[in-house]
From TrEMBL:
The lineage of its organism: Bacteria, Pseudomonadati, Bacteroidota, Flavobacteriia, Flavobacteriales. It comes from Polaribacter glomeratus. Transmembrane segments: none annotated. Keywords: Signal. SUPFAM superfamilies: Carboxypeptidase regulatory domain-like, Porins. It holds the Pfam family CarbopepD_reg_2. This is TonB-dependent receptor. Residues 1-19 form the signal peptide.
Length: 882
């Protein structure tokens, strides 16, 4: 019944929309009848109280406008370098009208200033005041109103379906180019124009030489916001002692820019997530992207879930850029984050031969600091230097009380973990355009990565019997572990780009990568009398030094012909690795890695990319350590010093299609991976206790994944369809027996979004996820169906209402379990025009849901989880715009 009402509602909206709107369409061409892509077509109603309508021609020069029935309209057509023309139209019935523009002898600037969107080469500029109405609060609200621009819920920005990888403000990176911090915090009233730069490279003369396909967005501030401090502050108070405070302050001048972002709350809102942290890793030019794989330190404990029962978050960040001289720019940022959370999770874990019921009560205190300094020196237009320094420091503590129930036997284990990690990265880049034919790039990088882990397990019941040399006669079992890892990387890479002509290039790469890693473990037991029972005599305790040196040479040939750009080549690596543990082992190996890339550009909005690589990688030192160490309260691990490199095929096909005229955005990708030989874990079970080690396997896994995302706009309704699938097959050794496992799943989402001018923006949809895991012994299937609705409504003058609702229908088909929960949030805000004050009322978890349910698969475990969440929160906030 609910589904029928939904479709009736959508049909009613569609019918009403179609009856009220008149379509005017056609083409814009030059005097030679060549299509003019990205021309501006603006409809100005005679009634000035009505909104402008706007269209941009596609690659074939076509446009389409939806006009209110009966309106008298002035149609203005403009294009860079051509004389604008106007046309009077009365919207009584659908019509087709083609336009021919003549080249202009006027100054280009006189033409540009009247155009809402201009395209010059790879740069598209939006005049935001042509699309906004003053109700926007942040940058993300402005971007959502620009044609072809979308912002997702995680702060990611796409333009015509392509992801923005670097965010700039007045030409300078905003916190290292992070888009989320920009779209969530830059005030809307400070934004002038928005530039989108395709095929971006921060070194101008490297553009066209990289295959990274980067895109940058440059936010140009209004002139009246420069040389003044601007931004906003907000404070809110809710029920049950809930609170939130935030401050976003900015100062821009021609030579000095300062940005500050601060937030403190206990409502589970995270300004800075682990995904954001990862975007601050690395920091080299895209030209070297294939030569580096940044790990960025073992800060995994910082990646706690947002689903917690209590939370306190503190965040502060400052970004400063300074033009020191005409040739030297200095920039840097500092980030501080502290979170205190508690969580409660119930699991049903299905092992191969038994089922465990488990509860986890966890408290965590995570402290993170990041500092970055960047020097950019440009002696002339053909040479550039970058010197980058980055320091990260984290101190994380985690206290876990776990209760495990198996076959009516209960065991309670308390686990305390502490991680202190330090990460330092220093790199120096040099780029030189020698002449029209030859360009050189080089980088030197040094990384120091140190992690000190301490763990303590306490229980009154024996654990890991037969796996650890513990004295189980003690009243309380107390197990300690120290696990320290220190890694140093020194990398040097030199690239030469030989541009034979515009269509043929030869690229040469030579380099050396050196890794030295120390891995130390110590496991012991504190007895009731305070004495120490060290496990070293039982084969525990590692003290390993792992060294790996990689000398490599690569040659690639790149050519363009018609719509095709093809790059093919090979890298030859000589790996030499040494293990110093109980004995010394040294190995040497040659590996040849071919790769292929083909870009097929049918036009600027329709592209196909094909990519293949033969890839290799080495495990870290812990996998080579050949003595035992504890991984958890129920698992012991031992490495394997005979391991070699992983080798696998990786292929990808990606297709994109975008057309404003046809209202279509389509992305489709297909990924295939096949491991030729790889390191995989093996496990021996003794009830819940596990002994794990690693071995090399031939052809151990194969997986195929795909996704299609389609959006189609018809009149003032946008239809969205997304479908994805994964099909993975892999072998797993359990209790010395090889078994073949399959992990098959698919998901799809269908949604309809309204695009009316004077009507709430409503998105209605449904999402379904189906997971199926098959092992040699059994099959498990999970289905989650989630109908959802999202409403954004600007009404009266200054009021904004936001609402999101999602109902989750979860089914464990294998166990016959079902669960339904509803999550809803709402916000009502008000800001009077020309006033600095704003007011907001927020309700979070309106239905006071207690938990969320989900499932997960590992090589030998299927887990069904209930994660408990924060209660209903109602908050009133007051903000002020500076």
């Amino acid at each position: 019944m609910k589904k029928n009402l939904l479709f009736i509602f959508l049909f009613a909206i569609s019918t009403t929309t179609f009856s009220q709107k008149i379509t005017l369409s056609g083409a814009v061409k030059d005097s030679l009848q060549n299509p003019l892509p990205y021309a501006n077509v603006i409809a100005k109603p005679k009634d000035v109280s009505k909104n402008l309508q706007f269209a941009i021609t596609d690659n074939e020069g076509y446009y389409k406008l939806l006009l209110a029935h009966g309106d008298t309209i002035t149609i203005s057509i403009s294009y860079l370098g051509y004389k604008p023309i106007e046309y009077q139209f009365i919207a009584l019935k659908a019509a087709t009208k083609n336009f021919t523009l003549q080249q202009s002898s006027e100054q280009l600037d006189e033409v540009i200033i009247e155009m809402p969107v201009t395209v010059r080469g790879d740069t598209t500029t939006y005049k935001t005041d042509k699309f906004t109405d003053g109700s926007e609060r942040k940058l993300k609200n402005v971007l959502k109103k620009l044609p072809g621009v979308e912002v997702d819920k995680n702060g990611g920005v796409t333009v015509q379906g392509k992801k923005v990888t670097t965010m700039l403000v007045d030409g300078k990176k905003f916190f290292g180019g992070n888009s989320k911090l920009a779209v969530d915090n830059i005030p809307a009233n400070a934004i002038g124009n928005v530039q989108v730069i395709d095929n971006y490279n921060e070194v101008a003369f490297l553009k066209g030489l990289t295959d990274s396909d980067e895109m940058a967005m440059n936010i140009q501030l209004k002139e009246d916001k420069k040389r003044f401090v601007f931004g906003d502050v907000e404070a809110g108070k809710g029920n049950k002692e809930f609170y939130k405070t935030s401050a976003n302050l900015f100062y821009y001048s021609p030579k000095t820019n300062v940005n500050f972002i601060g937030n403190s709350n206990n409502i589970g809102e995270k300004t800075f997530t682990f995904k954001d942290y990862m975007s601050f890793s690395g920091g080299i030019n895209a030209i070297f992207s294939s030569n580096f794989s940044w790990k960025g330190g073992d800060f995994s404990q910082f990646m706690e879930s947002n689903d917690v029962v209590s939370s306190k978050q503190k965040f502060g960040a400052i970004n400063i850029t300074k033009v020191a001289t005409q040739k030297l720019d200095v920039s840097g940022y500092a980030i501080f984050s502290n979170s205190n959370t508690s969580s409660f999770v119930e699991n049903v874990n299905e092992y191969t031969t038994f089922t465990e019921q488990r509860t986890n009560t966890i408290t965590a205190d995570n402290l993170l600091g990041i500092g970055n300094l960047n020097l950019e020196y440009t002696p002339n237009s053909l040479e550039k230097w970058h010197v980058r320094s980055q320091v990260k420091r984290t101190n994380n503590t985690n206290n876990n009380s776990l209760v495990s129930l198996i076959n009516a036997n209960t065991n309670t284990i308390a686990t305390d973990r502490d991680l202190t990690a330090t990460y330092i990265n220093q790199n120096i880049e040099w780029h030189k355009r020698q002449n029209d034919k030859h360009t050189f790039s080089s980088v030197f990088s040094y990384v120091f990565d140190k992690n000190n882990n301490a763990a303590f397990w306490q229980t009154q019941s024996p654990i890991l019997q037969g796996l650890i040399p513990a004295d189980n006669s003690q009243d309380v079992l107390r197990i300690h572990q120290l696990k320290n890892n220190q890694e140093q990387n020194i990398d040097v890479v030199l690239k030469h780009f030989w541009e034979i002509n515009n269509s043929n290039h030869i690229y040469t790469t030579v380099g050396n990568k050196f890794i030295s890693e120390d891995f130390l473990t110590d496991d012991s037991q504190t007895l009731d009398d305070g004495s120490l029972n060290n496990f070293a005599n039982g084969g525990f305790g590692n003290d390993l030094n792992f060294k790996l040196n990689d000398v490599f040479l690569g040659m690639h040939y790149k050519f363009r012909t018609g719509i095709f750009t093809v790059k093919q080549g090979v890298e030859v690596h000589n790996y030499n690795w040494n293990l110093a543990n109980q004995t010394n082992l040294e190995n040497n190996k040659w590996v040849v890695l071919p790769d292929f890339l083909a870009d097929i550009e049918f036009n600027k909005s329709k592209k196909l990319k094909l990519n293949y690589n033969l890839k290799t990688s080495f495990s870290d030192a812990s996998k080579f350590a050949d003595r035992f160490y504890l991984q958890s309260y129920n698992s012991v691990f031992k490495g394997n010093e005979t391991l070699e490199n992983n080798l696998y095929h990786a292929a990808r096909a990606y297709f994109s299609r975008f057309s404003l005229y046809r209202g279509i955005m389509l992305h489709a990708n297909l990924n295939y991976n096949k491991q030729i030989k790889s390191v995989r874990s093996t496990v021996d079970f003794n009830d819940i206790n596990q002994f794990l080690t690693v071995k090399m396997f031939n052809n151990p896994s194969e997986d195929l994944r795909g996704n299609i995302h389609l959006e189609k706009t018809i009149k003032e309704l946008k239809y969205k369809f997304d479908v994805g699938f994964n099909n993975a097959t892999y072998i797993q050794e359990i209790n010395t027996t090889l078994q073949t496992n399959k992990n098959n799943g698919y998901d799809y989402e269908f949604a309809v979004e309204t695009l009316f001018d004077n009507f709430p923006k409503i998105e209605l949809g449904i999402r379904t996820d189906v997971g199926k895991f098959t092992s040699s012994l059994n099959t498990s299937k999970f289905v989650t169906t989630e109908p959802f609705v999202i409403i954004d409504y600007d009404f009266l003058k200054g009021f904004i209402f936001n609402f999101d609702y999602r109902q989750s229908n979860y089914q464990n088909k294998t166990l016959g379990q079902k669960n339904v929960y509803e999550i809803a949030n709402a916000t009502l805000s008000y800001k009077k025009e020309n006033s600095g004050w704003s007011y907001k009322m927020t309700s979070q978890n309106i239905f006071n849901a207690q938990f969320k349910q989900s499932n997960s698969f590992t090589d030998y475990l299927i887990s069904d989880s209930k994660t408990f969440i924060l209660p209903r929160i109602v908050m009133i906030s007051v903000g002020y715009n500076l």
